[in-house]
Amino acid sequence: MTTPSSRLSSSGVASFEVPATVTGASDARRFTSAALAAWGCHGHSVDDVQLAVYELVANALLHTDSAPELTLRLTGSRLRIEVSDESAEPPSKRDGGRDGGWGLRLVESLAVSWGTERDGAGKRVWCELELGRTDESARAVAG
């Protein structure tokens, strides 16, 4: 899935301008699936990545007034997921309940590490996950 608002490289970097629509998080998940397949990533770790992407993008869409940008950075067997938006307000973990609040806790449980950083006037929320990859695809992306 590539569109004028997405970029996918064989060097292990992909970005997607997420539409600020009700399907934005699902669109980001589909883009992520296509990027991981192109890079030779497989297995249960792909499901974890898709879930983390969905949660981070859904949070940005729900709690900000901007269309976020998703960036995937693959280095060896580690994938960094970054979601940037125009809100300077940092995300906060809250107690999960019937109305939500599980997203960041879920990301935290899936990720090796996660955090936030300033990005211009906004912020970037990121997490890193370990992936299962074939030896051949790892060599192709590593160059």
From TrEMBL:
SUPFAM superfamilies: ATPase domain of HSP90 chaperone/DNA topoisomerase II/histidine kinase. The keyword ATP-binding applies. Residues 83-102 are annotated as: Disordered. GO terms for molecular function: ATP binding. Pfam families: HATPase_c_2. It comes from the Bacteria. Keywords: ATP-binding, Kinase, Nucleotide-binding, Serine/threonine-protein kinase, Transferase. Residues 18-126 form the Histidine kinase/HSP90-like ATPase domain. Signal peptide: none annotated. PANTHER family: ANTI-SIGMA-F FACTOR RSBW, ANTI-SIGMA-F FACTOR RSBW-RELATED. This is ATP-binding protein.
